[in-house]
């Protein structure tokens, strides 16, 4: 499985996980210029912006650790554009779904409120 396929699988697993927890999925792979939001969801009139990180191993660290401050700023910028485009007036939360997937296991960790726009 190449990097792109693993990423797409991770997003599908994350979407399924979120739906099982009661989230409504509003969109996937929203793009603004060169920026991207993996999953946009809603729960209880709260907009949830989800970054998905998928790896085959956690040897070099859990996948969520790859969401650097710079990446967070990019996600926040894209989220601001999405909010303006769609005239959304909900509280917004930024989550990370961290997945380790290989032939031995699939581990999903959902980190709610992982970072905030005050960066």
How does this structure look, described?
- This protein is α+β, with helices and mostly antiparallel strands and 119 residues long.
- The protein has two helices and five strands, in the order H-E-E-E-H-E-E.
- The protein has a five-stranded mixed beta sheet, sandwiched between helices.
- A hairpin with a 2-residue loop joins strand 1 (24-32) and strand 2 (35-43).
CATH class: Alpha Beta
Instruction: Give me the Rg, rounded.
Output: 14 Å
Question: What's the rounded overall pLDDT mean?
Answer: 92
Annotation field: number of helices: 2
Gross morphology? globular
Low-confidence stretches: none
What class, by secondary structure content?
alpha+beta
Indicate the proportion of strand residues: 35-45%
List the SSEs and their pairings.
Layout: H1 3-20, E1 24-32, E2 35-43, E3 46-55, H2 69-85, E4 91-101, E5 106-115
Parallel strand pairs: 3-4
Antiparallel strand pairs: 1-2, 2-3, 4-5
Write a brief caption for the model.
This protein is an alpha+beta fold and 119 residues long.
Write a concise keyword list for the protein shown above.
single chain, 2 helices, alpha+beta, globular, 29% helix, Trna Endonuclease, Chain: A, domain 1, 5 strands, five-stranded mixed beta sheet, 119 residues
């Amino acid at each position: 499985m190449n990097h792109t396929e693993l990423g797409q699988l991770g997003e599908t697993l994350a979407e399924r996980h979120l739906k099982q927890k009661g989230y409504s999925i509003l969109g996937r792979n929203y793009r603004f210029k060169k920026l991207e939001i993996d999953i946009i969801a809603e729960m209880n009139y709260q907009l949830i912006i989800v970054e998905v990180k998928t790896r085959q191993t956690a040897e070099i660290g859990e996948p969520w650790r790859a969401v650097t401050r710079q990446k967070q700023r990019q996600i926040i910028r894209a989220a601001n554009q999405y909010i303006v485009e769609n005239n959304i007036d909900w509280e917004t939360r930024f989550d990370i779904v961290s997945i380790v997937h290989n032939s031995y296991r699939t581990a999903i960790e959902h980190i709610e409120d992982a970072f905030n726009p005050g960066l």
